[in-house]
Design brief:
274 residues, alpha/beta, TIM Barrel, two-stranded antiparallel ribbon, 10 strands, binds adenosine-2'-5'-diphosphate
Length: 274
């Protein structure tokens, strides 16, 4: 199976299937270097958020990489405290300023804050229409949040970024998203590094001379998810991108799917207090 490196979103935007996530990457040298190394290694998608407090360094890393802006797909996210119509417009401008960019490729509502996400979405639609965000979407939305949003939305979210890894495979939500042409993006795709010693993943990797991290990334890609592993180490950043020269069999994929325990590492979007 040849695997395309990009995917077309419902609005025609082209998103790379594999990117660098920078949650927990420290502002300053760590974020600048990680972004620069990733872009120099061939990554073309960087996923940040206002809440990660590293947007300025992400922008700096982009500029330091030498890769032209238009070749890079930049995602950032609206923080919970900024939800609401006016405050979303303001928060978006602040993110642009911090990143030092004049447009974002994908702007996401970070969490479904009850009573606020519909107003935030109206502002996201404005931003999208203005061309300053080329695509818009949500993160951490369950099926019921999306159904509720769609009652009033004029633009259907193009992406839902959710916690997704071999121990939380989210089958029902993924089916719903696929049926609605909403692309799935996986956060904490490596289970925050906690599942890299899982014997089944290591054993599958040995067949292909690949690490457990590479096996997991390939599993996401072959499951049609967009995947954004985080690392601050150049060797690992390169390793995580070196996944386009092997292919998991249906049996490998089935064995990885069976690692599902439905256990979250992060909060349940129905029960968060931030
Ligand atoms: P580090 O940043 O020190 O390299 P996730 O993307 O699921 O959140 O996982 C990120 C975690 O996995 C981080 O702790 C990261 O550590 C670690 N990690 C990322 N890539 C690799 C890799 N190829 N091998 C080992 N650990 C990795």
């Amino acid at each position: 199976m040849s695997l395309e490196k990009t995917k077309e979103l419902a609005n025609g935007s082209i998103i790379p299937r594999l990117g660098l996530g920078v949650w927990k990457v420290q502002d300053g040298e760590e974020a600048v270097n990680s972004v620069k190394w990733a872009l120099q290694a061939g990554y073309r998608l960087i996923d940040t958020a206002a809440a990660y407090k590293n947007e300025a360094s992400v922008g700096e890393g982009i500029r330091a990489s030498g890769v032209p802006r238009e070749k890079i797909f930049v995602t950032t996210k609206l923080w919970n405290a900024d939800q609401g119509y006016d405050s979303t417009l303001k928060a978006f401008d602040e993110s642009l300023t911090k990143l030092g960019l004049d447009y974002i490729d994908l702007y996401l509502i970070h969490w479904p804050v009850e009573g606020k996400y519909k107003d935030s979405w109206r502002a996201m639609e404005e931003i999208y229409k203005s061309g300053r965000a080329k695509a818009i979407g949500v993160s951490n939305f369950h099926e019921h949040h999306i159904k509720d949003l769609l009652k009033e939305a004029k633009v259907v979210p193009m992406v839902d970024q959710i916690e997704l890894h071999p121990t939380l495979t989210q089958e029902p939500l993924r089916k719903f998203l696929a049926a609605n042409k909403i692309a799935v993006e996986a956060w904490s795709p490596l289970g925050q590094g906690k599942i890299l010693e899982e014997p089944i993943l290591v054993e599958i990797g040995k067949k292909y001379n690949k690490t457990a991290a590479q096996v997991i990334i390939r599993w996401h890609l072959q499951s049609d998810s967009i995947v954004i592993p985080k690392s601050v180490h150049e060797e690992r950043i390169k390793q995580n991108f070196d996944v386009f020269d092997f292919e998991l069999t249906d049996d490998d994929i089935k064995r990885i799917d069976e690692l599902n325990t439905n256990e979250r590492l992060g909060p349940d979007p129905d029960n968060f207090d931030f």
